[in-house]
């Protein structure tokens, strides 16, 4: 079956068409600046040239219409007609406590996702708009919703509760949810597969280090803790998000800088993280690595602090699981930054970790980067959230 995977943001939409039998990506692309002046679609068929077209996209329905037009284009398209697309898989950011699994989308599901809008006001409404636009243009194609939070719903109460008045949990469902669940699930399973060991017997820590970053603890095939919280702001230092801070800093800054809560939240989400910590050198680890090699003090501080926080979470999750068998690095930074992996693993001597430096320099493959015989195995597993969504969709649609 050919599955269209859609990841819809407020002004952008990423898509991939995946053949579920060969698990090959047939075409992929991105619509940008939806509803804004200068919108454009980028489309790349497998093995073909990338094409970029600037064209008006007043709304998401028009964006999806252009995606479907590109996929069926007689010259560069990869399907003859839309009938060849058997199902659509939508990434949905927040499923609250309602969704511990992916689901087939129907009216009831749409209403339940809408109820989670409060928990993810930037993401869920955009996801819903994308789903509605798709349903309008492909009314008879089955669609699945795959939630970023679902994999983490197995966390025990002691991991997901905050030390806040219990009434806030009862009234507003304030608790840890966690995100990147599709990636944590895919990578942890894949690690077990590559090692040829039963998933249900392993204690795995996944470090998803991209622009957004999170760590999760997966014990016997179930997530038992993760670093993102009610929102993706908690946990590791990220590209531009602060991660964990003393909550009193918010009030302190409000007074000192004369800022509103909204303005401070913008600082914490958009101006902090490695961007802020490096005194605006960059949010991109390629620049930070270059800076580190030049001896730039902003880059050195940032690389060291970022890595220290990752190592601290690994320590915490080793304690949470009473041990760890496998530690996986994934996503843009986790897959491509050997220096970060080196810095993090320098803290893991107590787990018997010793890196194989040659393996650690490789890219783009599932690989063990510890020397043979280490008590704890460290791996790099490239994530593939789109493939995971396509698999889930096929499982549900049958
Ligand atoms: P997201 O999906 O959260 O936007 P990604 O997982 O694509 O993020 O990761 C993007 C980040 O990966 C970039 O901001 C950059 O810091 C990092 N990255 C990508 N390629 C490299 C590389 N070759 N070396 C170091 N870091 C890289």
TrEMBL record:
The keyword Iron-sulfur does not apply. One of its GO terms (cellular component) is cytoplasm. ATP binds at residues 14, 208-212, 284-286, 332-336. Pfam families: Acetate_kinase. One of its GO terms (molecular function) is ATP binding. It catalyses: acetate + ATP = acetyl phosphate + ADP. It is found in: Cytoplasm. Its main location: cytoplasm. Mg(2+). Can also accept Mn(2+). Substrate binds at residue 91. The record marks 180, 241 as: Transition state stabilizer. Keywords: ATP-binding, Cytoplasm, Kinase, Magnesium, Metal-binding, Nucleotide-binding, Transferase. Mg(2+) binds at residues 7, 385. Belongs to the acetokinase family. Catalyzes the formation of acetyl phosphate from acetate and ATP. Can also catalyze the reverse reaction. This is Acetate kinase. It comes from Acetatifactor muris. The lineage of its organism: Bacteria, Bacillati, Bacillota, Clostridia, Lachnospirales.
């Amino acid at each position: 079956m050919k599955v269209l995977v859609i990841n819809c943001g407020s002004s952008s939409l990423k898509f991939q068409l995946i053949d579920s039998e060969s698990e090959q990506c047939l075409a992929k692309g991105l619509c940008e600046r939806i509803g804004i002046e200068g919108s454009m679609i980028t489309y790349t068929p497998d093995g073909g040239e990338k094409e970029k077209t600037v064209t008006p996209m007043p709304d998401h329905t028009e964006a999806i219409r252009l995606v479907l037009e590109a996929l069926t284009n007689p010259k560069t398209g990869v399907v003859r007609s839309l009938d060849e697309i058997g199902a659509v898989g939508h990434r949905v950011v927040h499923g609250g406590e309602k969704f511990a699994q992916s689901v087939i989308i129907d009216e009831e599901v749409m209403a339940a996702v809408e109820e989670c809008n409060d928990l993810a006001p930037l993401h869920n409404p955009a996801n819903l708009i994308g789903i509605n636009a798709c349903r309008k243009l492909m009314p008879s194609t089955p669609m699945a919703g795959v939630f970023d939070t679902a994999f983490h719903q197995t966390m025990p109460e002691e991991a997901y509760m905050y030390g806040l008045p219990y009434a806030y949990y009862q009234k507003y469902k304030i608790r840890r949810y966690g995100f990147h669940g599709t990636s944590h699930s895919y990578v942890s399973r894949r690690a077990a597969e590559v090692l040829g060991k039963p998933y249900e017997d392993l204690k795995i820590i996944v470090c998803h280090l991209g622009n957004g970053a999170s760590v999760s603890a997966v014990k016997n095939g179930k997530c038992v803790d993760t670093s993102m919280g009610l929102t993706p702001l908690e946990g590791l230092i990220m590209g531009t998000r602060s991660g964990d801070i003393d909550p009193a800093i918010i009030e302190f800054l409000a007074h000192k800088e004369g800022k509103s809560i909204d303005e401070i939240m913008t600082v914490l989400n958009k101006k902090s993280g490695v961007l802020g910590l490096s005194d605006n050198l960059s949010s991109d680890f390629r620049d930070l690595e270059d800076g580190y090699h030049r001896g730039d003090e902003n880059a050195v501080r940032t690389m060291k602090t970022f890595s220290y926080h990752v190592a601290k979470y690994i320590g915490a999750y080793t304690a949470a699981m009473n041990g760890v068998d496998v530690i996986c690095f994934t996503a843009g930074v986790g897959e491509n930054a050997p220096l970060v992996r080196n810095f993090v693993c320098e803290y893991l001597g107590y787990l018997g970790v010793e890196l194989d430096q040659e393996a650690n320099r490789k890219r783009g493959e599932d690989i063990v980067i510890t020397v043979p015989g280490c008590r704890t195995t460290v791996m790099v597993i490239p994530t593939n959230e789109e493939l995971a969504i396509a698999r889930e969709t096929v499982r549900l649609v049958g």
